[in-house]
Structure formats: C-alpha cells, structure tokens
Amino acid sequence: MMLNKFLAGRTGYFIGFLKCFALVGLALWIQTRYNLEPCPLCISQRIIFMALGVLFLLAALIPKFPSFFAALQVLTALGGAGVAIRHWWIQAHRESMVADCGVGFDYMFENFPLKKALTLVFRGTGDCAAIDWTFLGLTIPQLSLIAFIGFGVFALYLARLNKK
C-alpha cells in the first residue's frame, strides 16, 4: 500500500515518462556502444516510446483526466507492441527474407509521400531481420514488446489509483 501512495498523483506519471525516455536512451547507448545501425522498425519503436513518454508527462501535468490519458497510453502501447511483434516475426523468419530493409528512415520520409514511406517502414525485411544484440536471450523487439505491455499495464494501474 505504500507503493500505491508513492505512485498516486503525478509521481507515477513522471516515473512512466522517465522510464520511456530511459529506454530510448538505452537504445541509443546500445547503438553507439556496439556500432549498430537501427532499422526502420527499431526507429519506429523508439518514436512510439517517446510518444508514450510524452503522454505520461501530459498526464502528470494535467491530472484531471486519468482515464482519458490511460486510454491514449494503452492504445499507444498496443501500437508499439504491434510494431515489436512485426519486428519479432521478421526476425523469426529471417531465413526466408531476401531483400533488405531498403533505404534509410530519413531518406524515405524526405523522398516519398507519407503513405509510401510508412508502408516501407512497416514492411521491413533484411536489416530488420538481423539479430545484432540480445539480453538474457531476448532480442530487442522481444524486450520492446515486454516493455510496451508493461507500460500499458502501468497506465491502467495509474488510472485506477488516480480515479476520482
């Protein structure tokens, strides 16, 4: 019950915000430490973590609508989980993947219409299929999936704590 008191109010939402951006920071550290080039799906997951972090921050700054923010946070976490599952599926089927991920993320959005760029990002193959780093036997998309599910559950927990 002491944990409930600690997480009630703005504190829990600030912790969610910090954890989301800490994961993005960890991804950047892994990228530079191991000289890895992120694929479009990795970048998409980072963007979703940042969006989720911003939603946690907004919930902390505007505490009157916990259910509204919980719904947005859960939907965002589900979207992130979907991207992570797609990435995991591509890695699981890497032997049958022939093409690579294609051009870089920046190039796609600068040179293609938004719909085409998003299609290319989410189609990911090749580089997206590479497993360059693991932790406890889990790949980055698997770890991201666990984190997205955790954030969704945490958002629901905070909404329940802060319901007025």
Account of the 3D structure:
It is a single chain. By secondary structure, this protein is mainly α. The chain has a single domain (about 1-95, about 130-160), classed as Up-down Bundle (Bromodomain-like), CATH 1.20.1550.10. It has helices at about 1-5, 10-35, 40-60, 65-90, 105-110, 115-125, 140-160; strands at about 135, 140. Helix 2 runs antiparallel to helix 3, helix 2 runs antiparallel to helix 7 (about 140-160) and helix 4 runs antiparallel to helix 7.
Topology:
Elements: H1 2-7, H2 10-33, H3 40-61, H4 66-92, H5 105-111, H6 114-123, E1 134-135, E2 138-139, H7 140-162
Antiparallel strand pairs: 1-2
Helix pairs in contact: 2-3, 2-7, 3-4, 3-7, 4-7, 5-6
Task: Jot down its keywords.
73% helix, 2% strand, mainly alpha, two-stranded antiparallel sheet, globular, 164 residues
As for the number of domains, it is 1
The H-level CATH homologous superfamily, spelled out, is DsbB-like
* Biggest sheet statistics: 2 strands, antiparallel
Number of separate helices: 7
How is the largest sheet built, in terms of strand order?
1-2
CATH fold-level name: Bromodomain-like
Secondary structure: helix percent:
over 70%
The total beta strand count reads 2
User: Please, what is the average pLDDT?
Assistant: 84
Low-confidence parts, pLDDT < 50 over ≥5 residues? none
Spell out the helices and strands N to C. Answer: HHHHHHEEH
Classified by CATH, the class is Mainly Alpha
* The CATH architecture: Up-down Bundle
The structure class reads: mainly alpha
* Rounded radius of gyration (Å): 17 Å
Instruction: Work out the strand percent.
Output: under 5%
